[in-house]
Amino acid sequence: MTLAVRPAVIADVAGMARVHVDTWSETYRGIMPAELLDAPDLIDRRTQMWTQILAEAAPSKYTGAVAESDGRIVGIAMSGPPGTGGSVEDRHLYVLYAYRSIHGTGVGQDLLDAVIDPSATTALWVADPNPRAQAFYSKNGFVADRTVKTDDYDVVREVRMVRQAGCD
User: Fold this and answer.
1) 90: part of which helix (H) or strand (E)?
2) Mean pLDDT, rounded, for 49-78
3) C-alpha distance from residue 99 to each of 81, 85, 137, 155 (Å)
4) Cβ-contact 102, 69 below 8 angstroms
5) pTM, whole model, 2 decimals?
6) Fewer beta carbons within 10 Å, N or C terminal of the chain?
7) Tell me: the pLDDT tens digits for 112-139?
8) How far is CA 91 from the centre of its chain?
9) What pLDDT does residue 57 have?
10) Which has the closest alpha carbon to 85: 146, 133, 147, 141?
11) List of E strands, 21-163
């Protein structure tokens, strides 16, 4: 299996939406309600989201990357400006997903490196519990800052992790 990471382009939207939906199902089944994960319009909503993001993809706004294997998108990542209220970061890591079948190949690291500048303080929200993801981010210099919230769907507890500028 040959894996390559490259910047995301608008032609990738369908594949990115598919990875987003599939990896949510792999990762969050049993944590998020099945109605959310199995919603018939979820793929359409993710397609609209990725279309909007990539249409605005100036480096100062969003930076997206995809991982490909044999011409198929198998991983996605995206960083962007910090959210509103209480931001501690210069950039925010919003998305980093890869199919479970390629975990451990280094693709997660390559995706992270493609969308995060080590000279920028970066924060992210990670599901809790999600020990594999939390360990990956810790290995990359992210530290939980004791800030906790419930996700946008009000079902998953999330922990904020922050990596200070200059840490890579």
Assistant:
1) none
2) 89
3) 26, 32, 17, 22
4) yes
5) 0.91
6) N
7) 999 999 999 999 999 888 899 999 999 9
8) 13
9) 65
10) 147
11) 63-69, 72-80, 91-98, 122-127, 143-150, 157-163
